[in-house]
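BUG: 3D viewer hangs when loading the predicted structure for this chain

Environment: internal workstation, default settings.
Expected: structure renders.
Actual: progress bar stalls at 90%.

Input used:
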Amino acid sequence: MTNAELGSDRNDSPPTIVGRSGLGKSESIAYRLWLLIALTGLPTDEDSTYEILAERLSREGCSIRPRTIRAHLSGTVVPTRRELDAYGPACEWFANNAVLAEDPRYYLKPLIQAEMFMCTHIIGSIPLARGRDTPHGLDAMSVPELRAYRAELLSSGRLELVST
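Structure tokens produced before the viewer hung:
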């Protein structure tokens, strides 16, 4: 589905936001985008958030309607690379953010860090705290090791999100 197919005769009911259901499991663009928006402190399920983001995206040179943002969050429309690049600054993240990268070698580490930012608590030491150049740091982990670490954080109860 393209952005052009989101015409006025389309049902405007809010989609199911991925939200917490992706914690530790999903690596989808929709989940990572939800997480990026949640980190701004904006509610991820309110129309006002979509309108604010649409305005910010237009300032980044990428005009996206609020209903298209909803479709991106629900996973019914996959954002283009240009749209993904604009979401970073619009979400007050940073330009060229890796959370929305296509390659897991680039997005897994920032994804884990973003999930940790949203935590209510983390019990025990985490590789992030051990330094970036140490053998046990996140930078030294391969993609399978990062995925295993994420799964372990979730299954052990060491990772809980603040918002629902």
